[in-house]
Structure formats: C-alpha cells, structure tokens
Amino acid sequence: MATGSCDACVNYVYDEDCEYYYCLVNLDEDEMYRFLSGTQRECPYFRPDDEYAVVRHQM
Q1: b or e along 23-40 (b: 16 or more beta carbons within 10 Å of the residue's beta carbon)?
Q2: What pLDDT does 1 receive?
C-alpha cells in the first residue's frame, strides 16, 4: 500500500466550477468506512502527482 497526503495525489483534483478539491476514486462501502473511521492509515489508490515523470521518461 502506498502512503502520502491527498494533496500530493494524482487522483485529488480541483473542480473550477464548484471551487473545491475532490478525489476521483470511487470507494466502495467498506473502503469508505475504513477511511472515515481512521482504521486505514494508507490509501491503496495513492499515486504521487509527479508532473515531470513523463519528461524524465522521454530523456
């Protein structure tokens, strides 16, 4: 499992129309319970938002 802050995740995006951030991942009922209760400390869907990964790959 990956660790990290939602702020640094590629799935955490800003909606300009509503002016707030949200997660693109649709959690099922069990995952949402673990997330809200705090029993799961790590997000299994976390992917670092590395803007330069594509550029480094092309070099």
Answers
A1: eeeeeeeeeeeeeeeeee
A2: 45
CA-nearest of 35, 7, 42 to 21 is 7
Whole-model pTM over 0.70:
no
Q: Please check whether residue 42 is in contact with residue 2, taking contact to mean a CB–CB distance below 8 angstroms.
A: yes
Q: Name the amino acid, one letter, at 54.
A: V
Collapsing DSSP to helix, strand or coil, 52 comes out as: coil
19-59 tens-digit pLDDT: 999 999 998 999 888 888 888 778 888 888 877 776 766 66
User: Burial level of 45, CB count in 10 A (0-12/13-18/19+)?
Assistant: middle
